[in-house]
Amino acid sequence: MTYLLYIAAALAEIAGCFSFWAWWRLEKSPLWLAPGLVSLALFGFLLALVDTNAAGRAYAAYGGIYIAASLGWLWLVEGVRPDLWDLAGAALCVAGASVILFAPHGA
């Protein structure tokens, strides 16, 4: 369930940030900002649902999932296929995030 929350949070954050990118860098309508703000609020809510004893740990572990999800966005939305180095880096980040999240802290 934790990974699903992280994936949903990552998609919400990326979509929200992309709305600002589209408005500013791609010269889209300012109306793109409204769903972007909703998406960023959803991101914060979803990340707060992660079952951990410290917010900083939840954020640190989330970082690895965010990186992998960003490469998925790169490929599926922007049409740029990640290369081997992108995938290797994302795999390392997800492994690191898993260590942070599931290690027996305080044991």
UniProtKB/TrEMBL annotation:
Membrane-related topology note: Multi-pass membrane protein
Cross-referenced InterPro entries: EmrE-like (IPR037185), UPF0060 (IPR003844)
Keyword annotations of the record: Cell membrane, Membrane, Transmembrane, Transmembrane helix
Stretches assigned to coiled coil: none
Residue ranges of the TM segments: 6-24, 31-50, 56-77, 84-103
Subcellular location: Cell membrane
UniProt keyword DNA repair present: no
Pfam families: UPF0060 (PF02694)
SUPFAM superfamilies in the cross-refs: Multidrug resistance efflux transporter EmrE (SSF103481)
Family label: Belongs to the UPF0060 family.
HAMAP family: UPF0060 (MF_00010)
Name the UniProt record assigns to this protein: YnfA family protein
Species of provenance: Mesorhizobium caraganae
